[in-house]
Every structure is written in C-alpha cells, then in structure tokens.
Write the structure tokens for this entry.
Amino acid sequence: MLPQDLRDYLKILETNGELKRVRVEVDARYEIGAICAKLNKIRNSPAILFENVNGVSIPVVSQLLASNRRISLALDIPEDRLFEVMVERSSQRVETKSISASKTAPCQEEVFTGEQVDLSRLPVCTNNAKDGGPYITAGHVIIKDPELGQNLSIYRMMYRSKNEVFIRFTAGHDGYDFFKNAEKNGLTKFEVAVAIGVDPSIYIASQFEPSLGVYELEIAGALRGEPIQTVKCKTVDLEVPANSEIILEGEVAIPPKTGTEGPFGEFCGYTTEQVPNERIMKIKAMTHRRNPIYHNIWLGRPPHEHLYVDALSYAVQAYNELHPVYPAIKRTYAPPWGVSIALVIQIEERLKRPGLIGNILASALATRSGKWKHVIAVDEDIDIYNPDEVLWAITTRFQPNRDFFVVPWGSTSKLEPSADSDGVTSKMFIDATKKRDFRGQVAEPTPEMQAQVRRKWEEFGFRVEK
Ligand SMILES: Cc1cc2nc3c(=O)[nH]c(=O)nc-3n(C[C@H](O)[C@H](O)[C@H](O)COP(=O)(O)O)c2cc1C
Ligand SMILES: [Mn+2]
C-alpha cells in the first residue's frame, strides 16, 4: 500500500517490523545523532521514532529511508524490482494538484505567524560533535521563479534564532540559480517554503537532479502514480505538500543578510569548514499538523540514510541518460560506500562486445555533471547492492595492468576531501567484468537446488527476508 503521508508510512513501517519506538527521554543535542550513527553500523537496523525529546513536545523520526527495503515500502515496489520500476516511473511527470479552494490542509491545522514563530519549539538536532549548531536536515525547500519554474530540493539549514535560519544554496544546484536569477531581475526578496515530515516519495524525488526547470514534486507524483496535493502558504506565494507535518514560510532579503555558517558533518563522512557570508532566511510563519512529527536526517560517516536514497536516485538518472546509448547496461547503483561519487554499472552478458566497456566507463562522466570519481563495471551475476560481491569481482575478474584507466583530472564534489578545494580530482575506471581469457567458473549449487532451498526456507526454521 502506498503511504499517504509520513504518519501513514510510519504505520506501514511498524507493521513490517521496520520501526522502533524509543520511549525513554533523549536529547536532540548529540544523543539522537549518536544513536543514529550507531544504528548505521548495524545491518537491517530499523527507522526510529523518538517519542520523548528533552525540552520539546514534538517527536523525532530518524533513519527513515536507510535501506532499500524501506525505500521499496515507501514507493510500494517489490524490493527486487525497485530499480526497474523507479526507472520507469521517474521518466514521467505528474502535475501537482492544489486543494486550496476546496479544503483546509492538514499542514495548516495550527498556524503561527510573525512574533508567534518560535523554531525552538522544534527538536532541531545537533547530530555530530563538530557541528556549528542545530541543523534542519530534512527541510524540503520549495521555490519558484517566473523564468525557471518551480523547484523542490533539500538544503541544509542551520538554526540561528527563533525566527531565523541559514540556508545553503550550493553552486551547481538549482536553488543557487533561482536565487541568482531573482537578484538579476532586481527583486528585493526571495520567498522560500520548507516542508518537514513529508510523504517519503517527496523525499526521494527531492534527490533527483533533473535539468533546471523540471519540478521535482512532479517526479514525486510520477513515483506515486498520482498528483501530490498542495496548499497555498499563508504568508508567501508558494504551494506546499498539503499533508506535510510542518511548514516553514520564509524570505531571504536581496541583498541578503549574511553570517558565518557551519561547520557541518556532511554526507561524504567529514566535517566541512565554516562558510563565511552565508545567506540568512527569516521565517515569517510556521504551520503544522496537530501533534506534528519532526524528521531528522543524520549525515556523517557512511553508510547513512541520505546515501541510500541518492544511491538509487543518482543511479536511476545515470541509467536514464546512458541506457539509450548503451543498451548493454542492465542496472546502475551509486553505493552508499561511494558517497554519491562512485558508480557501479552492471553489464548484460549477451550484449558485451570488444572495447564496449571502455566506452561505457568513459561515458559515465557525461552524467551527474561529471561528478563520478570511481566508475566500476561488473557482470550481471554480481549483486551490485552488495559491496562484498563488487569487491570480489574487482579481486578476481580484474587485471590492474590492463582493465583500468585513469582520467588525470576532472571535477567532483567539493566535499570530497582528497580532491583539491575546487573539487578537482583524478578519476579511476575499472572493468571488473570477466574477459575472454577468464578461467573461473563460479562455485555454487545447481539452480534447481537453490530454488528448492528458497521454497523450503521457513520449513528449515529460517526467517524469510522480505
Ligand atoms: C540532508 C541533506 C542535506 C543537503 N544539503 C544541501 C545543501 O545544503 N545545499 C545544496 O545545494 N544541496 C544539499 N543537498 C543536496 C540536494 O538536496 C540534492 O543534490 C538535490 O538533488 C539538488 O536538487 P536541485 O538541483 O534541484 O537543487 C542536501 C541533501 C540532503 C539529503
Ligand atoms: Mn531541481
């Protein structure tokens, strides 16, 4: 069943044994983060609902999409078909539908404007030791521009005061271009709406990076197969997902008020430096559901939730761009250990031909703005979701003097700390598929016996992994 909103999704997770409730009191400062960090080290660990957070009345959910199983429950897709179905659905667009005229939206059950706005009521977490302060990490930012259209994306927001946050529009991301365009057009303010606690398809869609002007809420609609319902904000001219738990309505002045932001423990596993002159956003209104739930995304040493989502969204995008040119590509995955800059490409055996894989590896740089640092090709019998199998292929199907090339320089994420401060890095391309002179034959039981054992698994007293 497709979840209708965050709370519905939490129910689905609970029914499937994927949600743990923590009832003892926890602190949003460091403690929730430390629990998340520990859970990330445990395979198949659940999502967590912290019901009792010190000093605030709002519960926190974390680790929400930190596994393919939970992503498949979010989109109601069987786990073994997740990639193919996401490829199919994400190529479509389903426009949003406004309910403003007909009904009141859950996200506006309680409305606080002007002086009533108090962000300290939210359990904004300080996740890691060196973070410069509490950060809103699951703020789904909605913006629009008369020329560029609409955009949905997550941008980190550091708490500044009860009605102010920093907002980080990184160059290369659409928020940056939208803001620059507003400046160019002589506007005096830039309006922003932030949704926290959304239906998980919206979170997943926010991590697609389609070309400028494609509205990610329409991708969320396509992932769901039905329009995302929206409602007009109270104080800014934007529409937000009606079933969100919490909405912040904000405005960045032009020219912006600025200050020093950071440091912040980032997705790549390292704490990044302070940012001088970062933009500050004033929150004009906070609206929320009755008894809202706050969502925290923990970032830091991998693996973590953000990387599981990007592993699929970036790979689906790379596949959509590469597959029309190279039908031999069966699947792609940007594994969490590769912090969104390593790509594994699975090659279909019957479509292999001499030299093809070299071309495919090099062409990967045409996708994701060329951010890939390591690109690895493997055979179709390798489980690309399992690092053990990918590393086994590299160890036993790959000759370093022959099946390997380096691009001496290219660009990657600036947050990758071995690259230079502009994000310039060398890049590695590995063909770990079997070559014509390969001598190995995989040692495993017959397919018939494997199928029989799968069928009788519970009879033997083992739990069936869903
Ligand atoms: C927890 C989290 C924090 C993020 N923080 C930022 C950020 O501060 N700035 C940014 O530009 N992108 C950030 N991102 C990445 C963007 O959300 C992501 O790359 C998105 O697809 C960009 O979309 P856009 O091109 O429409 O801006 C973050 C993602 C997550 C999940
Ligand atoms: Mn975008």
Notes: The two ends are 15 Å apart (CA to CA). Residues 305-322 form the longest helix (18 residues).
